């Protein structure tokens, strides 16, 4: 249990709760859930430009990272097709993957196929089921994809001013505006209570909020004087109690609750909002192809990690279909913007390619 680990090392409850948020981020779990300590380790084990445990903003927004990867690939001869939905993996007479078929019927031939989609989409929707072992299909069907996350993107006409550290008269950003700001995280009990609400099918009455203002470091993201605020919130169940759907009313009711919480820390925040985009778990699934809205393509629980990700005997990026590889967050070592799964999968695929 993460709570026990933190109690051994720290006395300050706000500090313990702040660290605990990285143990439950993206997870339908509380700091008291067995195995939650690993999720914290997963989020602090890496480094950024030589600084261990550091995270950073991508200049130009997260889309700029995709563009950088695309430019690097194109410079080495890759052909990139966008807005071209894949219908299914194309198999040859030898039952090897030999390309993909697009929804418009176009066949794209290749010697190997690497899928960055989730295990569910890759193996349950894009791969002919008769080519997969039944126990493998069953394992993929049973992957825990529960997600507590609702992402809210906000445009504001001024910088938030927090009671704990009010803005200066000139309104210029302060050091804390450049960091990740955690709200409703004064103690681990608050996080556990927020989790408990969601297990009963209700959005948290006092949700955990991670607030970032990337435009402070990257002014090009917003007009002068304005800012974009990124809210990573939980816990929101994918299926609400009583079968109530996530619709405009329930989305806005939850967002209003989040904004009321922020208002208590930063009076005037609600009046500064000029636009917002609310993405609940079903929205994240529909728009981005994330099963259950899970940002990691599957829970980062100990039974779904290492040799068991995405399934026992298939953690080495190869799939039951020769020539088809899984290279996304559903593969080892799991989620996070680090590229480890893709790099590892590419090395395995290159090894096989040389042997063809």
UniProtKB/TrEMBL annotation:
All residue ranges annotated as the Amine oxidase domain in the record: 35-348
GO MF terms, alphabetically ordered: oxidoreductase activity
Cellular localisation: Mitochondrion matrix
Main localization (coarse): mitochondrion
GO cellular component, one term: mitochondrial matrix
Pfam family, one: Amino_oxidase
Alphabetical UniProt keywords: FAD, Flavoprotein
UniProt-listed InterPro entries: Amino_oxidase, FAD/NAD-bd_sf
Task of the protein: Probable oxidoreductase that may play a role as regulator of mitochondrial function.
Similarity field: Belongs to the carotenoid/retinoid oxidoreductase family.
Oligomeric and partner information: Interacts with COX5B; this interaction may contribute to localize PYROXD2 to the inner face of the inner mitochondrial membrane.
UniProt protein name: Pyridine nucleotide-disulfide oxidoreductase domain-containing protein 2
Organism: Thinocorus orbignyianus
């Amino acid at each position: 249990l993460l709570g026990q680990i933190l109690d051994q090392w720290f006395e300050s409850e706000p500090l313990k709760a702040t660290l605990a948020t990285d143990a439950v981020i993206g997870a339908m779990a509380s700091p008291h859930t067995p195995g939650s300590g690993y999720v914290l380790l997963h989020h602090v084990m890496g480094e950024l430009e030589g600084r261990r445990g550091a995270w950073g903003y991508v200049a130009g927004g997260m889309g700029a990272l995709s563009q950088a990867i695309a430019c690097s690939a194109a410079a080495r001869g890759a052909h990139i097709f966008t807005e071209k939905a894949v219908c299914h993996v194309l198999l040859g007479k030898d039952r090897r993957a030999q390309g993909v078929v697009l929804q418009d019927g176009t066949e794209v031939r290749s010697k190997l196929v690497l899928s960055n989609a989730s295990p569910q989409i890759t193996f349950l929707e894009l791969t002919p089921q008769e080519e997969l072992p039944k126990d493998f299909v069953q394992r993929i069907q049973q992957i825990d994809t529960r997600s507590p996350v609702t992402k809210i993107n906000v445009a504001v006409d001024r910088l938030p001013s927090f009671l704990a550290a009010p803005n200066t008269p000139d309104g210029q950003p302060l050091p804390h505006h450049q960091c990740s700001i955690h709200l409703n995280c004064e103690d681990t009990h608050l996080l556990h209570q927020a989790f408990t609400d969601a297990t009963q099918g209700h959005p948290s009455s006092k949700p955990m909020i991670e607030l970032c203002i990337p435009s402070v470091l990257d002014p090009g993201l917003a007009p002068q004087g304005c800012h974009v605020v990124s809210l990573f919130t939980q816990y929101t169940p994918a299926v609400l109690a009583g079968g109530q759907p996530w619709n405009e009313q329930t989305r806005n009711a939850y967002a209003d609750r989040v904004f009321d919480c922020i208002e208590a820390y930063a009076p005037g925040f609600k009046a500064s909002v000029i636009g917002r985009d609310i993405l609940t778990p079903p929205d994240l699934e529909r728009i981005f192809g994330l099963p259950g809205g899970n940002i990691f393509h599957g829970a980062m629980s100990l039974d779904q990690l290492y040799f068991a990700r995405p399934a026992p005997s298939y953690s080495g990026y190869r799939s039951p279909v020769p020539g088809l590889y899984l290279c996304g967050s559903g593969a080892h070592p799991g989620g996070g913007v680090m590229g480890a799964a893709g790099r590892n999968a590419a090395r395995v695929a290159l090894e096989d390619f040389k042997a063809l």
